[in-house]
Amino acid sequence: MGYARFQQYCASGPLGMDPILLTEEEAMEAIYRYRSVNAKIVASWKRCDGLVRELYHNDDGSPTLYKAIEVHKGTIILPNDMGLIFAQMNNAGRDDSFVYGTHGSNMYGAKLQENIIQALARVVISDQLLEIEDAGIVTVGCTHDEILAVAPESEAESVYNEMIRIMSTTPKWAEGLPLEADGGFSRSYCK
To answer: How far is CA 122 from the centre of its chain?
Structure first.
């Protein structure tokens, strides 16, 4: 987010905290410091700015490949062949500003990156869920980063260890992605 939005966010009392009142200069300083310390993140936003343009302009039928995704006009294809669809993408006559959907939501590199990361995280957890079930483990629930299973008490530790092994294994399509899992087992659900 830019400094003005950051200033508003802090003033709103984010995540249940008390409001943090920043001057415009303090908000600017925080944003610029973050961006200077995290240059690789900023560079990835710029790369995704280019992918936003591809979502709008890619008419030739050949996708733009970027790591584990394919960018087509209006759609990003994920490693599991599902798509992120950005319907009714347009630029309102300006090549550097894009909107999509029926409500004209703004689309820019950092927002696209967030969408891609959340979608890829969903692919990872759903593939892990399927592999856990293929191992004969009975699953009973799944959230964005958690898989729940049931097992006889005598098998709890071995089921837990197998789930940790599966959930700590990097998918073939995401070479180099560090994954680690943690959890536990109990007679009743607990966080």
So the answer is: 8
- What proportion of the chain, given as a percentage, has pLDDT over 70? 97
What is the value of pTM for the model shown?
0.83
Q: What is the 3-state secondary structure (H, E, C) of the chain?
A: CCHHHHHHHHHCCHHHCCCCCCCHHHHHHHHHHHHHHCHHHHHHHHHHHHHHHHHHHCCCCCCEEECCEEEECCEEECCCCCEEECCCCECCCCCCCEEECCCCEEECHHHHHHHHHHHHHHHHHHHHHHHHHHCCCEEEEEECCEEEEECCHHHHHHHHHHHHHHHCCCCHHHCCCCCCCCCCCCCCCCC
Residue 102 has pLDDT above 90, yes or no: no
Residues 17-59 pLDDT 10s:
999 999 999 999 999 999 999 999 999 999 999 999 888 887 7
